[in-house]
Amino acid sequence: MSILTRVTRQNSSTATFLTRHLSSAASKLHASYTFKPPSSLTPEPQCANSPPIKPNQRKPKPKYRPPSSLDPAGYKRVRSNDLPFDFRFSYTESSAKVRPIGLREPKYSPFGPGRLDRKWTGVCAPAVDPTVESLEAAEDPKLEEKRKMKREMIQGKPLTSDERKALVSQFERSKTNRHVNLGRDGLTHNMLNVIQNHWKFAEAVRIKCMGVPTMDMKNICTQLEDKTFGKVIFRHGGTLILYRGRNYNPKKRSIVPTMLWKPHEPVYPRLIKKTIDGLSINETKEMRKRGLALPALTKLAKNGYYAFLVPMVRDAFLSCELVRIDCEGLERKDYKKIGCKLRDMVPCIPVTFENEQVVVWRGKDYKPPKDGYFLKDRESFDDDNGDLNVGEEQQAM
Questions:
Q1: CA atoms of 93 and 187, how far apart (whole Å)
Q2: What number of other Cβ atoms are within 10 A of residue 61's Cβ?
Q3: Can you point out the beta strands (E) in 110-265?
Q4: What average pLDDT does range 221-234 have in this prediction?
Q5: CB within 8 A of 242, min separation 6: which ones?
Q6: Which InterPro entries does the entry mention (predicted)?
Q7: Would you place residue 384 in the very low, low, confident or very high pLDDT band (cuts 50, 70, 90)?
Q8: How far is CA 101 from CA 27, 98, 265, 270, 299, in A?
């Protein structure tokens, strides 16, 4: 035991001697060189609860916070002066002439609170009167002139026949898969932004139209040119090619605000009444039974091309007063829209929508329209005789 105690005493004495020597040496160096470390090397005081950060460890990233439509912070208010038209959810399936009789929800703007300098009336966001309180938003006649002037400025010199054919061949389905689908809602407001995103990388975009909006292809072409300021340079069936224009600049394009959610459709008057005007209750019931027992004029495919439907119904009315269209497999709101379009375009009177069938009546004093609605499957846009052909086709439409 005595030997161990002697060894430990000797080790402790040597250790104390070394520490005193090193501390005195360090003090001499500090006194002679007066070295002070920079502030960047001094460790920052840490919180007591936070874990210690290693010298080579990166600071943790802040947690991801998804954007909320109820939080307007961080979003700039979009100015819509460059877009001289009323903002609607659908430009082809909603009409400014038809006035609704009520709303299904309060007037919450689908663009989000405080993100647009227009007020939402429940149907649209009018471009002229921001204090409008009625459901019907009347359009300023000067807006059409503004749209026309802006479109002419963007389009510039018209395309020649060779330039048009080169663009059409470039955007064929066999050469590119990039296209925009136009479905049952027609030309929606957010599609304007999608089309402009395609125009960033190409001069034109191919649009494939399907479903109920194809019953009125003339309206689709008109609304596309009116709202996007482009030009339809090709149409074959439900396929369109929309040209952006010679003077189109993607960096200076108009900012289209996006709708964050789909607004509820307002309440419109009933399309089918209990008794048809001019008939009694028994005559109306008998007509509905006869209409459902008739052979179907045609059966519509889901998401098909329906431009042939209006001339078929007009031809059928020359020999029969009732026409039945088989809509089996379609959604109820789709064949309701079909009946509404037939009422306005043929014209005729919807009788019933029972059993996924559309039955229409031509009326007592039916007179076939003088101008036919035989829309050609393919249109000519050439400069040689294009102006004459387009004018004749628009009259035929």
A1: 8
A2: 6
A3: 180-182, 204-209, 231-236, 239-243
A4: 94
A5: 195, 204, 205, 207, 224, 228, 230, 231, 232, 233
A6: CAF1P_plant, RNA-binding_CRM, YhbY-like_sf
A7: very low
A8: 93, 10, 11, 10, 33
Cα-Cα end-to-end distance for the chain: 119
User: Span 256-261, mean pLDDT?
Assistant: 92
CA neighbor of 89 nearest in space, from 218, 227, 268, 280: 227
pTM over 0.85: no
pLDDT at position 386 is 41
Distance of alpha carbon 178 from alpha carbon 153, whole angstroms:
27
Listed by start position, the domains of the chain span 73-268, 270-375
204, 243 in Cβ contact below 8 A?
A: yes
CB-facing half-sphere around the CA of 145: CA atoms within 13 A: 3
Q: For position 165, what pLDDT does the model report?
A: 93
- Of 137, 58, 61, residue with least CA distance to 95: 137
Residue with tokens 């249109």: 379
Q: What is the C-alpha separation between 389 and 382, in angstroms, rounded?
A: 9
User: Class for domain 270-375, per CATH?
Assistant: alpha beta
Name all contacts of 176-182 with Cβ < 8 Å and 24+ positions apart: 176/206, 178/202, 178/205, 178/206, 179/205, 179/206, 179/207, 179/208, 180/205, 180/206, 180/207, 180/208, 181/207, 181/208, 181/210, 182/207, 182/208, 182/209, 182/210, 182/213, 182/220
Are 73-268 and 270-375 equal in CATH topology?
Answer: yes
CB burial string 366-382: b at 16+ within 10 A, e below: eeeeeeebebeeebebe
* pLDDT 10s digits, 119-175: 898 899 988 755 554 444 455 678 888 888 999 999 999 999 999 999 999 998 888
Token representation of residue 169: 């061949």
